[in-house]
Amino acid sequence: MQLPTPVYKPDFMITRASHLVSRVRNLAASKAFYCDLLGLVVSDEDDNTLWLRGLEEACHHSLVLKLADEPAVERVGMRVLTEDDLDLAEQHFAAAGFPTAWVEVPYQGRTLHTTDPAGTPLEFCATMDVCERLFAHADRYHGACALRLDHFQIVTPKVRESLDFYNSMGFRLSEYVVKDGNLEMVFLQRKGNPHDIVFANREGPRLHHCAYQVPETHHLMHVCDLFVVGDKEGQVEFGPARHFSPGLARFLYLRDPDGHRVELFPSHYHTIDIEEEPVEWEAPGFKVGGWIVPPDKWWNDTMAFTQTAS
Amino acid sequence: MQLPTPVYKPDFMITRASHLVSRVRNLAASKAFYCDLLGLVVSDEDDNTLWLRGLEEACHHSLVLKLADEPAVERVGMRVLTEDDLDLAEQHFAAAGFPTAWVEVPYQGRTLHTTDPAGTPLEFCATMDVCERLFAHADRYHGACALRLDHFQIVTPKVRESLDFYNSMGFRLSEYVVKDGNLEMVFLQRKGNPHDIVFANREGPRLHHCAYQVPETHHLMHVCDLFVVGDKEGQVEFGPARHFSPGLARFLYLRDPDGHRVELFPSHYHTIDIEEEPVEWEAPGFKVGGWIVPPDKWWNDTMAFTQTAS
Amino acid sequence: MQLPTPVYKPDFMITRASHLVSRVRNLAASKAFYCDLLGLVVSDEDDNTLWLRGLEEACHHSLVLKLADEPAVERVGMRVLTEDDLDLAEQHFAAAGFPTAWVEVPYQGRTLHTTDPAGTPLEFCATMDVCERLFAHADRYHGACALRLDHFQIVTPKVRESLDFYNSMGFRLSEYVVKDGNLEMVFLQRKGNPHDIVFANREGPRLHHCAYQVPETHHLMHVCDLFVVGDKEGQVEFGPARHFSPGLARFLYLRDPDGHRVELFPSHYHTIDIEEEPVEWEAPGFKVGGWIVPPDKWWNDTMAFTQTAS
Amino acid sequence: MQLPTPVYKPDFMITRASHLVSRVRNLAASKAFYCDLLGLVVSDEDDNTLWLRGLEEACHHSLVLKLADEPAVERVGMRVLTEDDLDLAEQHFAAAGFPTAWVEVPYQGRTLHTTDPAGTPLEFCATMDVCERLFAHADRYHGACALRLDHFQIVTPKVRESLDFYNSMGFRLSEYVVKDGNLEMVFLQRKGNPHDIVFANREGPRLHHCAYQVPETHHLMHVCDLFVVGDKEGQVEFGPARHFSPGLARFLYLRDPDGHRVELFPSHYHTIDIEEEPVEWEAPGFKVGGWIVPPDKWWNDTMAFTQTAS
User: Is this model's pTM higher than 0.90 or not?
Assistant: First the structure.
């Protein structure tokens, strides 16, 4: 497999997967799922919107849920380091032929809307309002104790194009899956663990899941117990078990009341140095769930983007 | 459901599920499974037999594996408190019309062979040789860190007869499952947690599983990882997840190289006082695996007893 | 060390350490400590009394806290199996020269007050009202998730007399500590783990601590975090660490707002069979806290009994 | 407290704390400590040197131990991103008046020796030989399961100078402690968690500790148990408990056979965005060990650098 040459010193600094903007049909039901069960914290809320963050996040929100008639995903959010990087990002996307727009977004600094080769609606900003990290409030840790947003997975037939484009912006390929000689999956990262964004080969662009990090393995089991209380065990989709790629991470996949999928995982390896080659996995030898076969719905159910004009 | 009257002061004292005697086809493969992966300790071994105990057991063995051409279970072992209790047990089984025999068993005191209404081949003794509990040897804790044998599950169409007979010997019913007005499952205990022996309604008598207690939830996940190493993930049958009955215990079911099933679980509630009624569960509302549906093989695969003359 | 001959078939059946009745100066502060931080459940409360139980206890209470001007311990509670055992217990204590009295206690069946050679005020009953075990309510597990009362430690110069008397009632000696040729500490049990009651050699009779079992090691660390929130870290007295005796159990000692000491521990070995000799430890080689030296207050602070007439 | 202006786009990219080069008196004893107990992996060894890495590190070594007559620290190692960054680093240190030297180091690419305002002997490289990350080998996880080197703590009276100099190279200040109006401690980071290097105000330059990340809280308790086995509990210096700064991280401090101190911790928050102000703590309100007071030796014992010419 011919891989693109890594770009160690990109023209602008995207720093990390930052936030997701989604549509839900019932804010109270969403709040019960994300706050009571997953452990996220409400930074703000009004009649139409919930702004949530993880227990150890200082940023105002990593998940924005908007009231709507149909569930969908509006935006995948990323951070750049500085305001200058934001302008350079705008130039980069425009030069690549993608529409760009400056928008006002509550609690965020200047915000850029654009899209990528897969058609993923993207949102970049350099700053958000700052909220308190809650590590000094052990009494507020509950449920799965979701700590911070970690990454997104997008399904798209344009896996190769996505790899090349994100590589050009300094994303590093940590692992990838090959099937019948073609790229089936690429794990791309900026923040030094295996992924900020993942592209998998299926009809798209659609969102497969976003992932939050939790403290320890027992939190995965505990949150499953919480779903069984109240007969919500149908929302526990896959796990707790262990992936092969990336990095044999332990995982649990849950479905929110609108069908949005969230992965919880306790830890990942770090990857910062440049001398290491990306790990290649061959499907179908590649075991997705370790000792559990994923259900068909985990493969097939994905969420549409609203695809509003950028 | 009419339940038998509990017998709080039985004529003799059976104290606990004690040990299992099984046949396996390859002692080295069994040792790798039970010692390297589950964490059991070898008390003794020769060319034909492995005597194993849990890390915190003082008894010489809770699992005896004998080399044979075909896998099977020879005996389900229980303890009585004293030698007097052993003689009284012999009289009780003989008076109930079951064959009894006194046999010599290595590392055990005087040993009684008999059977029960389901046809389960039983073995009773009051004493065994004493081995060191390994709690002072944290360096020998590894794999699933199996601590001690806890209980057996027998499948038999004679669930009601089994309940009545074991009840007459002072076993206490902790929980039971009813299906279409009939007893589907009974959990019977002597040692103060929910079960020493369980009878479930299916063709039998055959053994469904024996169960070992492990220290904590993370040991269930860790041992699954160990099975994935070396492509043995097919032996991880069901879990980690959480039962409804008894007591919503967390569990993991594994299959040894001969197909013998072992359950691992981290903890159970205690039940000693007499004022509490047994818990009744109604099938099919009863959820076996919490958030996971058990695979068909977990329901259907069971192990024959050798049914050698008692 | 000459040890008394075990009594395997005592005349009456004491089954387990059951409950503690203590005096506190502020019920709201006690409730915050025992319920919000340790995880105990309120079975009932009025202006003068709190009745608490562990998350997986079916008995109405394992801790009764009464409003008073001075903190003290009123009674150490034990269970007998049946009402007949209660009458036989009364005869046993009366025959040994101890005062006995039948008293009415809310939520308990017939209740016997008496005392032992150390002067410990004791309370026995066969039954209590039944409450729901909360294992099906994972959403109510919080704080240290205290599951059930396990044992008491009494300090008294009469360690030998206590051993002999409790041994005569069928308590089994699991472990003991010898210092300069004398019994320094005895661990006595009825329910099959290392202890229901412990006697240690110091001025007494006074209560050193009661102990509750918690699910896993991480609960010990989590509850310490909760004490640090709100500047209560001074109530974390000793641990988390690991004892030598009994059974190298992990532990954490906390002090409630009135100075009552509570031990939390995640697990203990089981001891039911009769062939095992009690474990002898020699002080001072014996390491109390594994890798931590206990603070002086852990040795010296103990709580007076009210010593009301039995 | 006037803090230096952060440098978001430094002239060259230091990426992370990388490795430590220390002197020990007995390689076998060191190997027992670091490999058998902490869980590190031997990448290579000869009669005079041990090269060790964490279980999930791909770099050849994060700890190099050299046989010597006296224990000491030779070098604190950091990574830069590319070979170009290495040349730019050399220019930066030379321009600041520090001696620089290019040296050959086994298993490392081109290596720069220099020093900082505190006098810390530093070593920079862009690449090392690549070894296998062992996440696919759950069977090799044992002891504390140390995953990866995380950070160093240097004691020096030149805390302010160190802050200013490291800030100029793009290190970000995450937290700091003020005492009597002076900087007592600064936590500086490059890799997005609270620290790669910490400077604390005491006689120096000397090394206080290096820190490795472990998977979960229970690994801290388990490794303490391992030290108690074999009467090594004296090497468990402080913890397991929880720091206040940075980020209320759980910790355990151990001393190796030569007195080198190693911290183990299970997790830290992430800090990447620029809008968050450094956290200020005020000594003495600042609680170092949460609920445990650190022993004097934890404050006072530190390790000399060999201070060989750079």
Answer: yes
